[in-house]
Amino acid sequence: MNIEKFNDSAELLKVVAHPVRLALVKFMIDNGPLNVTSLHEEFRMPQSTVSQHLSKLKSVKVISGTRKGLEIYYEVKDKRVETILDAVIISA
């Protein structure tokens, strides 16, 4: 069996397997595209912390950002993440 084909999936699982990132992804799925300020206010954590988590999610293409004026709005693009959340989150 060729283990190399599992690298992408393993990297996705590693990035998503963090409580804050799971919560951010779930919130974006439920509420549509959001900017860093909205997420910072919702989760009551420093804006820089939110940005770092978004950067990790963006690095494996879980989310993408669209610029609207001065703001960037992030949304979940990888539908596999929704399946993962459905499988692992009992109630949120």
Automatic annotation (TrEMBL):
Print the keywords alphabetically: DNA-binding, Transcription, Transcription regulation
Q: Give every HTH arsR-type domain span.
A: 1-92
The membrane-spanning stretches of this chain are none
Q: Name one Pfam family in it.
A: HTH_5
Does the keyword Transcription belong to this entry?
Answer: yes
Report whether 4Fe-4S shows up as a keyword of the record.
no
Superkingdom of source: Bacteria
What PANTHER family does its record include? ARSENICAL RESISTANCE OPERON REPRESSOR ARSR-RELATED
Its name, as the record gives it, is: ArsR/SmtB family transcription factor
Organism this protein belongs to: Ectobacillus funiculus
Q: What is the lineage of its organism?
A: Bacteria, Bacillati, Bacillota, Bacilli, Bacillales
